[in-house]
Amino acid sequence: MRALLGMVLVALLCCPLVSVASGSGYVDVTVVQAKSMIDSDPSIVILDVRAQSEYDSGHIRNAKLIPLGELPGRLGELNEEDRILVHCKLGGRSSQASQILADNGFLYVFNMLGGVAAWTSEGYPVYVRYLSLQEAINGAVEGATLFVSAGTYHGSLVANKTVTMIGESRDTTVMDGDGAENVISVESNDVGLSGFSVQSGARGLYCENCNGTAISDMRVAYDALGSEGIHLFGCWFSRVSGNTIENASQGIVLSDSYSNVIDNNVVSRRSGCGLWLSYSDNNTLDSNALFSGISADGKGIELEHSYHNIVTNNTIFDNDGTGVQSESSSGNLIYHNNMVNNSQNAYVANSSDIWDAGCPSGGNYWSDYTGTDGNGDGLGDSPYAIGGNLTDEYPLTNLFLEGDVNHDGEVDIFDVVKVCGIYGTAPASPKWNVNADIAEPYGVIDIFDVVKVCGNYGKARRYP
What we know:
Strand content: 25-35%
Number of domains: 3
Shape: globular
Helix content: 10-25%
Largest sheet: 17 strands, parallel
Radius of gyration: 26 Å
Number of helices: 8
CATH class of the largest domain: Mainly Beta
CATH topology of the largest domain: Pectate Lyase C-like
Distance between the termini: 44 Å
CATH superfamily of the largest domain: Single-stranded right-handed beta-helix, Pectin lyase-like
């Protein structure tokens, strides 16, 4: 290991951007280099050797606090073979701490020159332990971004000005509403919320008559079946993306809301709908996972008096209610979804929606489809009956994942090779594969399909 460390140090010495403290056994790095190390290596240990009060006033994301005076007695909390980036306020204490680590057999120790002062001078964020999130918002200027340290923050929150709040980690940064009607209420345009767990309220997040809201990487969870997860009322041009909702009565609700994007959310174990649109038009519901509705009302998606929405790439499975239900709605385009093992995969009443994107792009995958695919093109030879004289004319015979050309549940080099191998083909070709025709213009495998498959590289089907 010591020989390996020597090789690493020699390599670093060859780089003019880093320096090795003479005879120290650790490496000095600038804050720019430190930021690059953090961004490129999620396993790096960020060690803050300041006092607790300094840490609370602003620290690097996910930094581990061990004050310098406590470090000799707490070395057992660190791994000798981890890469450890040490910092303090200005650089003095971190140099001492780095030397302590090096003297005790730690192999890869990096001392950040200039400390947090230099870090913030470069414009890099620090996360603050606020006494009150509401007071933080009240004291912020319009357009400010607040980086919130891990911890539990009690009481409801009203975002009544344009701010962005980013939690250090949604697993450790908790907003506890203490039973409030709304844990978070958004009452202003262009509010951003990301990186929090939300609990103990009748609603997790309620946005009313505001536009441009961005809600991402949030976790709304109840110990027992609670109420709504996220509700947009009278909202436009907002995005709800990458959130997890558990044990809610309703997952995500849109009422009187238009032109919003709801994508990549996971809504599980609920008594009501995963996604419920009421009197809401021109929204996009894309790549959501909606499962484990535990009652007859536990539907995946419900469209009620809603028009011209796009419902695509969603996976809806194991719901005791309907997979997708449409009532008194029309003009909704519902395609490339996976409907698997719901009590009833689809139900319509007084609706006239479109349940496929036509040939050759195809419609949806239905677990209860009993038709055949005689020519192996990935499309069923007969329609799937939705109800109410509506059909999916081109049901998919394989679970859909955008870019998964060979149907193995992940997008990898084999899919790239396969789409390139059928470049230029059309539906009449025996090599045609509907899962490769994922970009306009449809009906031919071209450069746009190749680019889109490559753009999905690394994705895998998580459900079911």
